[in-house]
Specification:
32% of the residues lie in helices and 23% in strands. The protein has twelve helices and twelve strands. 39% of the residues are buried. Bound molecules: iron/sulfur cluster.
């Protein structure tokens, strides 16, 4: 354990929840092709908690707003409204110092390992720079030693061999390991992993997920794992939240959400996952009919109602509440609310 991590764990008992988002919203105001302004509601009233030593998966189709959530949590985008709490303290201040402090505690690992590293700089440069910027106490003489330790922590060994290399000399999996090592250089408390394996060969996805899982346990990190692959959420995350058209529609323990999904959208997401056993029995899976809505022209009522096989009278007019379905599991659907989808007593 490095000196600053030892000092941090010895001096303070930190809250179990490292990062909390309360009703965060993001509206992008864009100019359309005919010069008309469009308000794109990318994220609507999303609340979530990232706990130490635990992974929360955020699952949904492309364009549902999950990557925007990661960027809001990383403070790469300003919030339209809502609040972030880090270590139990309300996040405030947009100045350089506040921003640097936040960035040293909350790091993001991006999807594309090919563009996230600068081709003109060595691996040493990518690791030493954050060590110098965020950990002013790092002695220049120990920087290489610390960089080697980080590389070996992400299974790039011997680390000294990798220090001299350039990104183009590495495979996609090795680059993603370097990106992860770089994010660890500042000893974060929270890691936001935005589709960290989706651009990698299938053969190494599991290795990278295992590595992330080990880092969560060894460093007591709080992790957000963003993915469109709900099957990997069951394997990798303690809890799973499902997002549709900018809002959370279901959340609970991963085993519950993936084995006993309640929201019709989650059920269709799971039914679309290729399953050899089901295929052998003649079931080739189902997908939700139609397309997700335009986030600048959301349907009234339940956002999923134009595609939902269970939609009733109430669904096209009234937004459904989040309803507790037991075992720390909830779903945003009229099926579970008093009166059901018709609203009749
Ligand atoms: Fe389907 Fe209605 Fe539930 Fe929405 S509220 S998911 S339309 S049943």
């Amino acid at each position: 354990m490095s000196g600053s991590r030892q000092a941090r764990s010895a001096t303070a008992v930190r809250p179990e929840v490292a990062l909390r988002a309360e009703a965060i919203r993001k509206i992008f105001r864009l100019r359309g092709s005919e010069g008309r302004r469009r308000a794109v509601q990318a994220v609507s009233e999303v609340s979530l908690e990232l706990r130490r030593g635990s992974v929360l998966a955020l699952v949904g189709e492309s364009g549902c707003g999950k990557s925007t959530v990661a960027r809001l949590l990383a403070r790469l985008y300003p919030l339209t409204s809502g609040t972030l709490w880090l270590d139990g303290e309300k996040v405030a201040g947009r100045g350089g110092r506040a921003r640097r402090k936040y960035a040293s505690q909350v790091q993001i690992v991006l999807q594309d390992p090919f563009s996230s590293l600068n081709a003109s700089h060595s691996i040493r440069h990518h690791l030493v720079r954050p060590l110098l910027l965020h950990r002013r106490g790092s002695h220049p003489g120990t920087l290489d030693e610390e960089a080697v330790r980080l590389l070996e922590e992400v299974n790039l060994a011997p680390g000294a061999d990798f220090l001299r290399r350039y990104p183009h000399e590495l495979s996609g999996g090795q680059r993603q390991r370097v990106s992860i090592a770089r994010s660890l250089a500042v000893e974060p408390e929270v890691l936001l992993a935005d589709e960290p394996v989706s651009m990698l060969d299938v053969s190494i996805r599991l290795e990278i997920l295992r590595l992330l899982g080990r880092l969560v346990a060894d460093r007591n990190l709080a992790m957000l794992y963003i993915t469109h692959d709900i099957a990997s959420a069951r394997y990798f995350a303690t809890e799973t939240a499902v997002m549709y058209a900018g809002e959370l529609v279901e959340q609970g323990p991963s085993e519950q959400v993936t084995q006993n999904p309640q929201h019709p959208y989650t059920q269709l997401l799971l039914a679309s996952v290729p399953d050899p056993d089901r295929a052998a029995a003649g079931d080739t899976g189902r997908t939700a009919p139609g397309e997700p809505p335009d986030l600048a022209a959301l349907p009234a009522g339940c956002r999923f109602h134009p595609r939902c096989p269970f939609a009733g009278k109430r669904c096209s007019t009234d937004a459904p509440p989040a309803v507790d379905v037991g075992d720390s599991h909830w779903a945003r659907c009229w099926l579970f609310a008093p009166g059901g989808v018709t609203g009749e007593p």
